[in-house]
User: Fold these one by one.
Assistant:
Number 1:
Amino acid sequence: MSALANPGASAQAIQFHYDIGNSFYNLWLDRSLTYSCALWDGHDTLEAAQMAKIDYHIEKSGARGQQRVLDIGCGWGATLNHLVRTAGVAQATGLTLATQQAAHIAQQEWPGVDVRVESWSDHSPTMPYDAIISVGAFEHFAKLDQSPEEKIEGYRGFFRRCHEWLPPGGCLSLQTMSYENSSREDFSPFFASQIFPESDLPRLSEIAGASEHLFEIVSLRNDRHHYARTSLEWRRRLLQRRAEAVALVGEEAVARYDKYLHLWAIGFHTGTMGLLRLQLRKLETPRRLH
Ligand SMILES: C[S@@+](CC[C@H](N)C(=O)[O-])C[C@H]1O[C@@H](n2cnc3c(N)ncnc32)[C@H](O)[C@@H]1O
């Protein structure tokens, strides 16, 4: 399997955001350093809601009790840790483009966990995976300056790879933000240049189109209100530790994160943006491979 060109954000663009400093994220994320929308159904603490989200993806991907599971965009490893510690998975492999995230995971020495600083587009496993999870990374798999056709082709490349890596009937559990009552023309220049450079959000129709004939969509939730609540909680925690945050990354960066989390909460609350959780099952004999 030859490497593809990474159609999304470069390693440098990813590191601009995620490598600002592990101690900074440690101040305002939950203890597991999960950095994606939580699942608040029946939970009132960020910790519990993040664990519920991880459990949700473990169930939807069919990862429980499996030998080999892949986490594409593994962050600081909360899902990898949970897979081997509580879900009976023998080997959990994580991909990230952020070097500080990978260093953090390597430092934990979690048995059965392996992390690589590698894009999904360069990944070339020697054996298939039993299940795949990808949470909060798909937002980085396309760029704003791509044509609509290039954008879909990039996404299709991702789904093709996941299809190749899974066994018959295997599942990918995918979570991503999306454009809802908005489009890429509405993507704020503040986010594009100062928060998530080289990134663009998908629409649900683009995910459905790009995965067609490769995966069937088994379940879908739009939990945008869960992201409004998660963003507000992150912002509350950041402001509570503001002085320490400023000492770590400076006034300007803290003001940027404060503004981004505030705008995000509004975007999810009003339905400008959505939060999709999709369970995708591999089609065994696609009639047409794109
Ligand atoms: C918002 S974080 C989500 C982390 C984690 N899944 C969580 O829920 O806490 C996005 C992750 O996607 C990773 N990422 C972005 N582009 C990637 C790519 N092309 N290949 C692999 N990982 C990528 C980043 O390095 C980062 O770890």
Note: The longest strand covers residues 273-282.
Number 2:
Amino acid sequence: MPKPIIVCVDDEIAVLDSLRRELSEVFEDTCEIETAMGGKDAIALVHDLIEDECDLSVIIADYLMPDIKGDAVLQQVHQLSPQTLTIMLTGQANVDGISNAINTAQLYHYIAKPWQPEALQLTVREALNRYQLSKKIKDYQQTLERKVEERTQELSETLHTLQTTQSELIQAEKMAALGQLVAGVAHEINTPVGNALLAASVLNNETSSLTQAFEQGALKRSALVGYLQTAQESSDLILQNLHGAAALIQNFKQVAVDQTSHEQREFQIIPYIESVLTNLEPKLKRTRHTVTVSGDAALKTTSYPGALSQVVTNFVMNSLMHAYQPGEAGQLKFEVTQQQDRIILEYTDDGCGIPAEHQPKIYEPFFTTGRDRGGSGLGLHIVHNLVTQSLGGTLSCQSEVSVGTQFMLQLPLTLRKGEAHARG
Ligand SMILES: Nc1ncnc2c1ncn2[C@@H]1O[C@H](COP(=O)(O)OP(=O)(O)OP(=O)(O)O)[C@@H](O)[C@H]1O
Ligand SMILES: [Mg+2]
């Protein structure tokens, strides 16, 4: 390791000599001692040392010099090498020079001429200690900064890996959900199509037999009556099952939410919900339920009204289908509030509630407890897709058996173009 350097500056050769001698006595082994005749010489020397990346630890400068005064020399050195400790030698009590050096060169110490060699040696030793200490602190600081930088780098790499893993997981989950959906659709459609197929083949067989009997002139009236009955029953079955399959396909088409086919626009949310409820009036009229909508009627949102209409319709239809016994009078409530740039839409019924074990499954495609009543189990799956994809929001459900069910939607007040797609 290169030794630290002590620079002595004076315009008198005798002074420089004694400085060198006294300092060498103590620091010969640990430091290099350089001398400069006057201020200009000193600044040139310091420039050279800095250029050579030397360890300039201490500079001792006389105050009274003909070319540049000591305080100005120390000030320049301090600017060039701020970590160097500055000591000034002064013959007379020159308060101005000292205070100037303190202010501009962060003067470490001043020594009055004539000085005691021991005092000089002690001062320089302390200065060297101080210099080494601050160098160490600086090294620590640099090491610490490097470590922090490395750690930050590591952390950001970890974060990146996590994000990639997360999106891979989401993708895998989506693929799994899609697989499930396709398998479910195939299964669901298989039943009505299979039934229709069976009825059609019965009809086909019976028609062949009838045609044969007719061609042979052996057609009896009773056979014709029997055939007509079978034909009626079979065609009824075919129609009914194909209707079922068509409805299922219609529902399934909605699962693949296509927001581009619906217009995005600004609308007042409460009057809009009320208009959707008016469309449901024919269904509600047959019940004793009360539906209310509350909140600030002037509240506007920019979003997809078509998607919201499907959500509202599904909520109400679910309450009608699942929440109440026939003849029961339920309270169905929509409540709309604004929280900063979000709209909170709460829908509540006071029906039978959803058992805890069913709650995690309600958004799954084909989960239904109403299959016998024509439920396909796609309703809430569609709602979930609409809310999270088309409407760019979130959906949560709270339900308690015998108390009722609540769905809460958080929607952005203004759905920016492209936002819905990005979330999908
Ligand atoms: N308000 C509610 N009260 C009680 N149970 C509910 C309510 N809403 C939904 N559920 C339960 O969640 C299940 C899933 O609902 P979802 O709307 O997805 O399907 P579905 O209504 O059975 O059939 P679909 O909507 O396709 O005709 C329902 O079968 C029912 O068990
Ligand atoms: Mg439903």
Note: The mean pLDDT is 90.
